[in-house]
Design goal:
21 helices, 2 domains, 84% helix, mainly alpha, 522 residues, single chain
Length: 522
């Protein structure tokens, strides 16, 4: 039981979290620039729809799907004394990814009007025309992002975590620079609003494409060093390629379920009225931050280790213990984040986004969506860890089945709740589906390796939940007391009070991760 604690990758998870934090902070700056220049209206909706389809391709061919199928096979080959097979596999996978994304980019550019009509059904007039133009610009970006994900898989296997997770920072910087530059030099106050917003949106798209080139460029030298060159090839016969593809297909189907859910949410957002789709995007920026910092970081470090555990002398117990430790660490940070979103959403949104074309009504709308996403934050953050357990066992089918059932539930709930609560109802349906998703993952994983969560994990969960509730009440009280102050001051006071109560309470109740964090800070 001590092995996962000692070798659970705490330092490596910190490197992942640091890289993610850097890119997420700049991602927020980028989104605030969008709020200032573009706002939360029809142009922002068009941008949301245009980004969704290329991002779907990136998610299906890269990110978690590539890591889940490529890393276990590549890690096994790289463990050999002769690294030639691992190097050949890396080159072959890169070649196949470039081929696939190139074909899909051409198809996407050609069918952009049809895709917009389907997934942006609520867009009309200038919004629909802008979405088509933006989508055609952004489709080539998906191929570059897939190459970036390949770099991540290679570097993570070699235990180099910070660079691939920090690389998106340059993508954000390029978008910010393009938007500020356009807002400063390429538009005039006398222009009609429609023309002004169109020009700003197109400038942002061009900056985004340039940023994707830079994101890949800063990672390739590190990949070149660990691989001693990058032997790109187009081959299905290279050792390991078939294993990667066999494992990859079910993972893609599972990720496809999640991406279909996102597409449905975007479609419903456009039908919820002007600002519906963009409200979801603003809220998702906040939702993704704790998930990435405390869920993705733990899952990313765990997957290579879980793959090695699966080959150990007592694989089930090693897997169970490592997953349990990962779950406990995720819960320690995610539960308070969840309750903070539910209790303090408008307080958090106001100083972050209310600027320029983003007004008080937009704050209320996005705040409601953030609170609804908070309900399902724990499910969203933990599911990647549990999926990694199945992937380590070379079972990529079970997560697909569970995710498919959850998709049906979340989509139905999102449609029904949207009619009553607008965009917040879409987010709430997604949250409830995510909760069901993670519960079923845990149930089936228990059946494979034994009960993941035992007494210590449930006690730690109870402590986090109890203290998070107290912290939320304290933060809400502080926000009400300081209601007359500026938005930033109110948010700062509320969050400081929240954090102080949570950290102090978990320390007092001897939560293992609170004590571990205290030791680290000292």
């Amino acid at each position: 039981m001590t092995a996962p604690e000692a070798t659970g990758g705490g330092r490596q998870a910190a490197h992942v979290a640091a890289g993610i934090m850097l890119s997420r902070v700049l991602g927020y700056v980028r989104q605030r620039a969008i709020a200032y220049y573009i706002g939360n209206g029809w142009a922002a909706d068009a941008l949301s729809v245009a980004q969704r389809i290329p991002n779907t391709i990136r998610s299906l061919l890269a990110e978690g799907t590539l890591s889940a199928s490529f890393i276990p096979v590549y890690a096994a080959l790289n463990a050999r004394a002769d690294k030639a097979a691992a190097r050949a596999l890396a080159g072959a996978i890169l070649g196949l990814l470039l081929l696939a994304t190139g074909v899909l980019a051409v198809i996407g550019i050609a069918f952009a009007p049809a895709l917009t009509a389907v997934f942006g059904a609520g867009l009309t007039g200038e919004a629909r025309a802008l979405a088509v133009s933006l989508m055609r610009l952004l489709f080539p970006m998906s191929g570059l992002m897939v190459v970036s994900a390949w770099c991540l898989g290679v570097l993570n296997t070699h235990r180099r975590f910070f660079l691939p997770y920090a690389a998106p920072a340059v993508w954000n910087i390029a978008g910010i620079a393009a938007l500020i530059g356009a807002g400063t030099w390429l538009v005039a106050p006398t222009l009609p609003t429609t023309v002004l917003l169109t020009r700003l949106s197109l400038a942002l798209a061009w900056g985004t494409v340039a940023g994707s080139v830079l994101q890949v460029a800063i990672q390739l030298p590190a990949c070149w060093r660990v691989l001693h060159g990058i032997p790109v090839r187009w081959s299905f016969t290279t050792e390991g390629v078939r294993d990667v593809l066999v494992a990859w297909l079910p993972v893609v189907l599972g990720a496809g379920v999640a991406q279909i859910s996102g597409l449905i949410d975007t479609l419903l957002g456009t039908l919820a009225g002007e600002g519906g789709a963009s409200s979801l995007q603003y809220a998702q920026l906040l939702q993704v931050l704790p998930i990435s910092l405390f869920g993705t970081s733990v899952a990313a470090v765990s997957l290579p280790e879980l793959s090695r555990d699966a080959q150990g002398s007592s694989p089930n117990e090693q897997l169970r213990a490592r997953i349990a430790v990962g779950f406990r660490r995720i819960v320690f940070f995610i539960l308070p984040s969840s309750l903070a979103f539910v209790a303090l959403a408008p307080v958090i949104v106001r100083p972050l986004f209310q600027t320029g074309r983003f007004g008080a009504a937009d704050t209320d709308l996005v705040g409601g969506v953030v609170a609804a996403y908070g309900v399902g934050l724990l499910g969203q953050a933990c599911v990647k860890l549990f999926q990694s357990g199945f992937y380590a066992l070379r079972d990529t089918k079970t997560p697909v089945k569970i995710a498919s059932a959850s998709l049906v539930l979340s989509s139905a709930l999102a449609y029904l709740l949207m009619r009553r609560f607008g965009p917040a109802g879409i987010a709430l349906g997604s949250s409830l589906g995510a909760t069901v998703n993670v519960v079923f993952h845990l149930r089936d994983l228990d059946a494979r390796v034994g009960a993941i969560l035992r007494g210590p994990e449930w006690r730690a969960f109870g402590v986090s939940l109890l203290v998070s509730g107290a912290a939320a009440a304290a933060g809400l009280g502080a926000a009400r007391i300081a209601a007359g102050a500026g938005g930033f001051a109110v948010a700062l006071l509320a969050l400081v009070m929240f954090g102080g109560v949570y950290f102090g309470g978990t320390i007092a109740l001897r939560h293992p991760d609170a004590r571990r964090l205290w030791t680290f800070l000292l």
